[in-house]
Amino acid sequence: MKLPTSRFNTKLIINTMAIILFIEGIAMLPCVIVAIFDGERDIAASMATSAGLVLMFAAFGKLYAGKHDTKMKIDESYFIVIVCWITAIVGGMLPYLFVGRDFGIVNAIFESAATWTTTNAWIVDINTMPRALVLWKAISSWLGGMGIILLTVTVFSALGVSGQKLAGVEVSGPELEKHTAKMADTAKLLYVLYGAASLLEAILLKLAGLPIFDAVINTMSTISTSGTMDYHGVLEAHFTSAVKVIIIIFSILASLNFAVYIKILRTRTKEALMDFEMHLFLIIIAVSTIIIAVVLYVGHYYNSLGEALLNAITGVVSFSCTTGFTLEHVEVWPSVCKFIFVVLMIIGGCATSTAGGIKVIRFAVLVRLINRGVYKRIHPRAVKPVMIRDVAVSTNNASSISTFVLLFFGVYLLSAIVLSLENLDMETTLTAPIALFSNCGVGFGQVSNSNFAILSIPGRLYAALLMIFGRLEMYALLILFSRTFWNPDRTNH
């Protein structure tokens, strides 16, 4: 499609892309240091080349943009978000191409898309990668967790760009609550919380026995709900109950609405602790854990109820937080456990969190809408609004949520049809799309270990697109195919 320059602020778009590339290039530098420390000069040179190219394009973009209008229209915010995510993924694939391991362009695209969208899916085994590239996977997952657009708003708030519009399009959830006078202040506060939680988890994992490198990469991958990274079996060797509990706790914390933490910091603790979505999310985790633990214990899959509970909650958190831990024995668990896991993947975590899925608040509103529909059948003249914590859900929000859920399942069904062309078994065909679309990364059948190398080249490209769809919650991509979006006479700015 030709970009109508009369409608779009091209220099603003290029400037934002340059910012993304600058952040990405700087983020590659620690990988160069690790390669030098490991004595891998060729890997260090490859990572330095990747960082250099990314920073060079960032500089060119900044020079071209120069002084420009910083006002942003709504349609521009949608376009900028998708372009910037594509920019981050394309820039992020350079290390995979330059490390000299012959990954190939398609595999590099898939790996980069999986990490930036925090999906625990892979084509290339990390055990074949040098530590520098594994660190890059962790860093890009960490940046993608909170959202590269939010980071842009944080670091470059002085640009005067409308951060509320930009972040509102990108942030995972029904809406982004503006907790401070400026969106940039909210973004900074979110990243302070994100960074503090990451530091705390890394320290705890180190104290629990993980080597420092593995503690860091697993902190970055779990706090961003993008899975765990078992590099050369180190995590498996140290996967004690303490490590499990730490990963479980921080995965849950990362899947809660970050508005809860902002309210606590702003001394609105009582309001934060009464958060409806948080309560429902924790109830879903608790009930699912109890059901699965009982099934596993009664079925003699584990010798003690305590062991069954620990493994049950590990699995529940893996799927409900869309973190996607690869569970060693999940394939032999009863079908009822697998069914619950699929439902948890679909529901996902809370709005404005690093988790994927439909989101708990949307699920809650959908259930209330169904209940309202049943009630209206019995009492057609009654006025019964949809209530969440004694607050009525507006008609616009209810309609938007209903549309989103229908669109979610529509994209899932289409993706299942597309992946059925791969001629895989039914369990793999039906769970692989939801694993990718929910950004969980773990399905069943042949993708129970998050390995999507079974897909063909076109299948891998479609899988990468599906992960991006899930991360941006569809609208940012789908809106680009709307005739109204490209028609200046019909587009509302």
Low-confidence stretches: 1-6, 158-163, 175-181
How much beta, percentage-wise?
under 5%
Span between termini = 20 Å
Going across the biggest sheet, name each strand in turn: 1-2
The helix/strand class is mainly alpha
Radius of gyration from the alpha-carbon trace, in angstroms? 22 Å
Sum up the overall morphology in one term.
globular
Share of helix among residues?
A: 55-70%
Spell the H/E element sequence. HHHHHHHHHHHHHHHHHHEEHHHHH
The tally of beta strands, per DSSP, is: 2
Describe the main β-sheet briefly.
Answer: 2 strands, antiparallel
- How confident overall, as mean pLDDT? 85
Number of helices: 23
Structure, explained:
- The chain is an all-alpha fold and about 500 residues long.
- Helices cover about 65% and strands about 0% of the residues.
- The protein has helices at about 10-35, 40-65, 75-90, 95-100, 105-115, 130-145, 150-155, 165-170, 185-205, 210-225, 235, 240-255, 260-265, 270-275, 275-300, 305-320, 335-345, 360-380, 395-420, 425-435, 455-470, 475-480, 485, and strands spanning about 385-390, 390.
- It has a two-stranded antiparallel ribbon with strand order 1-2.
- Strand 1 (about 385-390) and strand 2 form a beta hairpin.
- Helix 5 (about 105-115) runs parallel beside helix 21 and helix 12 packs parallel to helix 16 (about 305-320).
- The longest helix has 28 residues, at about 10-35.
- It starts with 9 loop residues before the first helix and ends in a 7-residue tail after the last helix.
- Mean pLDDT is about 85; it is low at about 1-5, about 160-165 and about 175-180.
